[in-house]
């Protein structure tokens, strides 16, 4: 659904697109089937990047931590960026821990 929405709002199949937090590559597959010619992926997990690589739709895959400066990527390298679920996880991970005590 996210790739479908991205395809509707992106101007003329922008390229290249960065799939930030690409995981196993499911979003990359959806973007490719919707006509996006160049998709790169970024993820913190080398295991997930291996699964994404096996999908055969990414031009390049980069291992990086999105909570740190993304020095592995060139400035202004992408015409569009999509991130499905990843930014929520990062935001939650950066929240202070809370202790809940039940009566």
TrEMBL record:
Pfam families linked: Methyltransf_25
SUPFAM superfamilies: S-adenosyl-L-methionine-dependent methyltransferases
Coiled-coil residues: none
Signal sequence, start to end: none
Residue ranges of every copy of the Methyltransferase domain listed in the record: 17-91
Database matches in InterPro entries: Methyltransf_25, SAM-dependent_MTases_sf
Protein's UniProt name: Methyltransferase domain-containing protein
Native source organism of the sequence: Caenispirillum salinarum AK4
């Amino acid at each position: 659904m996210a790739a479908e929405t991205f395809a509707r709002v992106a101007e003329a199949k922008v390229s290249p697109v960065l799939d930030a937090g690409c995981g196993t590559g499911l979003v990359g597959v959806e973007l490719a089937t919707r006509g996006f010619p160049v998709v790169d992926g970024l993820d913190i997990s080398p295991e997930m990047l291996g699964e994404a690589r096996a999908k055969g739709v990414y031009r390049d895959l980069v291992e990086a931590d999105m909570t740190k400066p993304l020095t592995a990527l060139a400035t202004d390298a992408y015409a569009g960026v999509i991130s499905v679920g990843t930014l929520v996880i990062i935001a939650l991970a950066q929240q202070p821990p809370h202790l809940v005590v039940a009566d």
